[in-house]
Amino acid sequence: MEGQEDLRIVEHLDMHKLPESVQQMVALASTPEEQDIILMATLAAASACVPNLYFAYGPTGKKYYANLQCFILAAAASGKGIANQALEMVRVIDEQYPMLIAGDSTLAAFYKALEQQDGVGYMHESEGSVITDIWKTSAANYNTALRKAAEHEPISRNRVKGASEIKSPRLSMLLTGTFGQYKALVPSVENGYFSRMLTVVIRGTNGFDKRYVSSKGGQIATPKIVGQRLLRTYKALMNGGEREWSLTNAQKERLGEHLETEYDTLIGLLGENFHSAVVRMAVQIERMAMVLTAMRGGENPHTMRGNEHTDSRIPSGIMDKTGEDNNRPCLVDTLYCSDQDYETAEMIGNKMLLHMAAAYRMIDGDAQECVPEIKPIDQRKVVFEQLKAEYNHGDLAEEAKRQGISKRTIERWNQSWIENGLVEKTNHGQYRKVA
To answer: Who contacts 413 (Cβ-Cβ below 8 Å, separation ≥6)?
Structure first.
């Protein structure tokens, strides 16, 4: 059985480098599992509240906006209910700028809501059975709509009453549910939506939390306070027109090199079907970094201009408070990601790849549990890296014993390394890593 600590996210972050609002939301959690849930829920929810900010991606310069779609896959009583705190944060903005779309919506109602809100929306659903029931009747079409929204591709429909098109849908989403409910949305690893949606895998249940008996109201107040900060940033971005956000050249180079290394390892371990998840993680990392920039809002008066940082210790903020009227923050013309926000997003992206690798193997298998047991990809990487450049069958047996895994498991891994080109068989029971 795997340990959840192999997949934990917040434990690997420097909390002091997170925006103050994110720190406050994470502080609502009482367990490591809850910390990861509220972190990803906060990022997904906040991504709906970053209008008019985009980054240009790839050779074509395609525009991507901040919108994240995330599924938190967990068993009952595992603490996933804390994700609803992020919804309360968005409700503050929704009162003035409608964006909420009910999870219990028919496909027609979903389209109508997006059309009425100029293609912008946030869907938050914590009851997996609700989304499962509605997707039983329209799963394929819903899946297509969500997949297109993840890429901001036009969503068109043609009905008796006329045709309509949402030219650039910007949908953020946070869903929580069990494995069976997750598989209703992502029925196979070949499904294009798998790589477009972040998946967080939470195992186990927590003990009784006495906070549910008595509370001083802190949990209620925090999301509203954070929501008010987001609302100020939202208004400033809405009034300022579209502007570009970008990684620095050094950050872009680092991201490319990092994902190239992860690509070679993960594709070798999991196969070509995991290709799109690694490639699209570049977009997800940039989205998360942009959300972190936005969540800083006006918390720091310093901003960045120009092609590169002059001081990586100074975060780039949405607003510059040095205008004539200090009560009316001025928007900067160009935004660049701070090093600390990039590093945070990259670290979260690393862990997201491991979570998605876990979900990938669960979908590929025939699991019946709410959250099936899995072996984290970390362990395969550790085993592979521990083996010498040239090794034999006996070395595999010794490594299996040392790692506490079955001989059959490591032999199966070894066979997958051979099939995926990481290892070649040189003789009977003799193997060599491919450089």
So the answer is: 269, 380, 383, 384
Judge whether 377 lies within some domain: no
Length of the chain: 435
Bridge pairing between strands 170-177 and 69-74: parallel
Which of 81, 72, 67 shows the shortest CA–CA distance to 178? 72
124 found inside a domain: yes
Look at residue 369 and tell me if it is in a domain: no
Please report whether residue 371 resides in a domain. Answer: no
The residue from 308, 330, 364 where one domain ends is: 364
> How far is residue 420's CA from residue 236's CA, in Å, rounded to a whole number?
50
Domain housing 400 = 387-433
Q: What is the pLDDT of residues 107-159, one digit of tens each?
A: 888 888 898 999 999 999 887 667 667 666 655 467 788 889 999 999 887 66
Q: Are 168 and 113 in contact (CB under 8 A)?
A: no
Amino acid at 207: G
* Same domain as 225, residue 338: yes
Tokens of 171: 């949908």
Q: How far is CA 65 from the centre of its chain?
A: 14
Instruction: Say whether 424 sits in a helix, a strand or coil.
Output: strand
Q: What distance in Å separates the CA atoms of residue 41 and residue 85, rounded to the nearest whole number?
A: 8
pTM assigned to the model: 0.78
Do 291 and 149 belong together in one domain?
yes
Closest C-alpha to 356, from 338, 376, 339: 376
